Amino acid sequence: MSANDSVPALKIEALSKRYGEFLAVDDISLRVEAGDFFGFLGPNGAGKTTTINAIVGLASITRGSIEVFGHDNVRDWRTSRTLIGLAPQEYNFDRYLSIRDILIYQAGYYGLRPREVRARADELLERFGLTSKAKETFVKLSGGMKRRLTLARALIHQPRLLILDEPTAGVDVELRIELWALLRELNAGGTTIILTTHYLEEAESLCRNIAIIGNGRIAAMGPTEELVTQHGPATLSVTVDRAVETLAPALAARGARRDGDPRTLYFDGLSPAQIAPTLAEIEAAGYAVENLEFRRANLQDVFLELVRR
Ligand code: ATP
Question: Distance between CA atoms of 288 and 309, rounded to whole angstroms?
Answer without folding.
Answer: 39
